Amino acid sequence: MATLFNTLLLGLTIGASASTIQMNIARDPAVQAAQLEANYLRSRLVRRGSSSTVTESLVNNVTGGLYAASITVGTPSQKLTLQIDTGSSDVWVPQAGSDICDTPVVEGGGCPGGTFDNTTSSTFKVVGPGEFNISYVDGSGAAGDYFTDVFGIGGATVKGLEMGLSVDGEIGQGIMGIGYNTSEANVETGNTTIYANLPNQMVDEGLINSLAYSLWLNDLDSSTGSILFGGIDTDKFSGDLISVDVYPSRRSKSVISFTVAFTSLSATSSSGTDQLTPDSFATAAILDSGTTLTYLPDDIAEMVFAELGAQYYRQLDAVVLPCYTGETNGTINFGFGGTGGPVIKVPIKELVLPLTSDNGQAATFSDKVAACQLGVQAAGDLPILFGDTFLRSAYVVYDLANNRIGLAQTDFNVTSSNVVAFPSFGAPIPSATTAPNQAAVTQTATGVPKVGATATASDGSAAPTYNPTATGLSAASGFTSSPTGKKKSAANGIEPFLWSRVFVGVITLSMMGVGGGLFALM
Question: What GO biological process term is on the record, naming one (predicted)?
């Protein structure tokens, strides 16, 4: 999925081993603030290396946000910043001179990642006039032409990449979709033609050996991270790298998103561990770098809120908790694929995010305790989504050739690198073992999340629920005590400054691309 919010900037580095391309990425808080203000003003807030590897580095900012890449398009090359999105499949860029780019930010416009002037590129070629059309659940979209041109990424050059040129639309931030090509925008809008998107074109041109890449976002406070096309970096994770199946959607019967079996959730603090799901629990969840938060089944999310002393605030459409909760040493533990599958432990500090007003004023509770946002929300009737608040703690390998996801506990802030390329097309994930006896799931959810609403399945029936009691949670006391030992609850209320001017930099669900296959996965 993709969003306009909290865009990140990326620098370029060349991968260190054969058959991989590595890419650095960064967030720009100025772009973040501009985009948030633009969306508030227009009242459109969305709810919710070398020859065979390519690496792009990522840079993060504590204010939160999504990840983007510094790339080039055309001859001579033109620099742009595109948001990286594993939940959609098209690379598209805003056209220079388009209405959205010429509209001031304060009026809901602007193109902070730059624009592409196709008239100055000698290698520009239209291949689908008027055929590019991607829509999002908030009613916005981008439309124009499909074209081919030279595309530069991570020090490598893709000579003939097909992309979308946004001539008309409400979105000013270009997107680098790297999902399955079966969910390209033209496929979802009725054109059954599937073209070679960025990962496929990298394989076709011999830049990488297999249709795969790995993502290392690093921690919330770090300044570096990377996406590595065509390989893995064994220095970026600890413990076992375990692969799990990727499952199809019920609607299309094909794999169109990175849907895995989410099978357990627990909370661990200094005062104990609580199991928040039953032994038989299994539900479909999508791993999506284009979503800032993590969206859990409503009943499970409520248990997390109870553990952490968090509370939903309707005025902000955000879940709020004391900032000092992030100083605890506890974790929320996410399990996949059933018994023997990978378990990713997310430190609480990775889930506690800044909450400020547009003038930089920090939000506080009525007793002046600093208030922050929790990076977990209830999904409502949306698919269960694991966004950046989860992904920062996981080293994730996306193996599109074999429909598998590799997961391991990330190593934060490591500076060394040991890149291992996929040796051939369709080769298994290097160094990975396979989760045994995996629980099978199918993606069926559809719709837009409404915090506090009852989740429903796509056929209208009530979704399965699990309702452990919120009392007697042994881990809760370890999460909800302040550094001074004084307990604090979000129920005391936030200081009543102008609600509409609070910038909740990471609460908004990313705009869900129909092309990403997540709008109606029946």
Answer: proteolysis
